[in-house]
Design a protein that fits this description.
- Helix content is 38%, strand content 15%.
- Strand 6 and strand 7 form a beta hairpin.
- Helix 3 crosses helix 7.
- 51% of the residues are buried.
- The mean pLDDT is 96.
- The site of pyridoxal-5'-phosphate has 14 residues, from helix 3 and helix 4.
Length: 391
């Protein structure tokens, strides 16, 4: 069968679903109400941010939360609120979005970039243990692609060594580990509402935490150093204005009512792709042990035959099934090492950068013909790509 890139017929010509999806009625009503109220900022007495925080804390199984401008700032504030700062080392996985590491830099600490599990591509306890030093203060497991990191061994290790645990749940709204929601598994958890995420207000973030004193510290850091019940111009701490707006919260709050349906939909789609893939050539990257609810932010695929990566990406594009090449290993980014990050060897993240491709979330929101298209285009292109690089 002639590949579309060679002039053949593409597998798909229909567009994929747009992201974000159009506002639903509840979003439109709440956004309009907030705009009409004139209370656009969270310090003016509106309820949208407060309600969003309460809903996320409840869904994460914890007491507290703080809404922030984005997850990068949320990770920064969570780390600082847990006492992490200059002189401390913070362990981050090598296969994640760069912000996991730059948030550590923002907090003034040193990111120590450790390799991920060769199969599931998440941070694992043995890798963390091997990278510990007397300066290690915290670890940041990432719930990559919407599947939770294997948190029990990580938490046990952290408890043994007195380390703080900040979950990077930027990709994992609604995911669960051993039937416990992410976000509430460590000392703090951080969600993102940036445009590509499963819930979005264009930008935004939210920190959840269990302990009252952590909440007080994080809230203060995000509210120019004020105390929770203190004076407007009382600033017992050095802090910043990192707040989310009421307008953003109004976009997000109604979304919680449909989040679980959307996750179900993506899981059904992912299962259909997995069933139809030519499994000897390409397979779905497995979830870490303990995943009971994968929020399927991305569907990660590993190719098992030799292939020419730029060719394959271009050929899939031409078939109407664009895939994403995924992350470069953080430890290989000169900008991070020049900024002081300490990279450990990361062969598994390097292998992922060679062999792993992603189906992005908006495509996972399509109906099941989309799943068939993905499998069909991959089978077609991999049959060709196995020929090796083109002249
Ligand atoms: C998106 C993302 C972030 C950063 O979130 P922002 O809201 O864009 O700051 C951090 N970590 C991971 C894993 C992400 O996917």
């Amino acid at each position: 069968m002639t590949l579309a890139i060679d002039g053949g017929t593409p597998v798909r010509t229909a567009p994929w679903p747009a992201w974000p999806p159009p506002m639903d009625h509840a979003q439109r009503a709440l956004v309009t109400a907030v705009l009409d109220s004139g209370q656009w900022g969270a310090t003016q007495g509106g309820q949208a941010c407060a309600d969003l925080v309460a809903a996320f804390a409840r869904r994460s199984g914890v007491e507290h939360g703080v809404a922030v401008g984005n997850a990068t700032l949320g990770l920064f504030a969570a780390l600082r609120g847990l006492g992490v700062g200059p002189g401390d080392e913070v362990i981050v996985p090598a296969y994640t979005f760069v912000a996991t590491a730059t948030a550590v830099l923002l907090a003034g600490a040193t990111p120590v970039i450790v390799d991920v599990d060769a199969a599931d591509l998440h941070l694992s306890a043995p890798a963390v243990e091997a990278a510990l030093t007397p300066r290690t203060a915290a670890i940041v497991p990432v719930h990559l692609a919407g599947s939770p990191a294997d948190m029990d061994p990580l938490n046990a290790l952290a408890a043994r060594h007195g380390l703080a645990v900040v979950e990077d749940a930027a990709q994992a709204h609604g995911a669960a580990y051993r039937d416990r929601p992410v976000g509430g598994l460590g000392d703090a958890g951080v969600y993102s509402f940036q445009s590509s995420k499963a819930m979005t207000a264009g930008e935004g973030g939210l920190i959840v935490c269990r302990a009252g004193e952590v909440h007080e510290a994080v809230w203060s850091l995000c509210n120019v150093g004020r105390a929770l019940d203190g004076a407007w111009y009382g600033h017992p701490r050095a802090g910043w204005n990192l707040r989310l707006t009421e307008i953003q919260a109004a976009l997000l709050l109604p979304w919680l009512d449909r989040l679980d349906d959307e996750i179900d939909r993506r899981n059904t789609f992912a299962a259909a792709v997995e069933r139809d893939l030519p499994g000897d050539r390409v397979s779905v990257v497995p979830q870490p042990p303990g995943t009971t609810r994968d929020s399927r932010h991305l569907l990660m695929l590993r190719v098992h035959v030799p292939f020419d990566r730029p060719f394959l990406l271009a050929a899939m594009d031409a078939e109407g099934v664009p895939l994403d090449g995924g992350y470069p290993p953080l430890g290989t980014m000169p900008a991070l090492t020049e900024a002081g990050a300490r990279p450990e060897p990361c062969p598994s993240a390097e292998a992922a950068a060679r062999d792993v491709l992603w189906v992005r979330q908006p495509m996972l929101m399509d109906d099941l013909t989309g799943a068939a298209h993905i499998a069909e285009a991959l089978a077609k292109v991999l049959a060709g790509a196995a020929r090796g690089p083109r002249p």
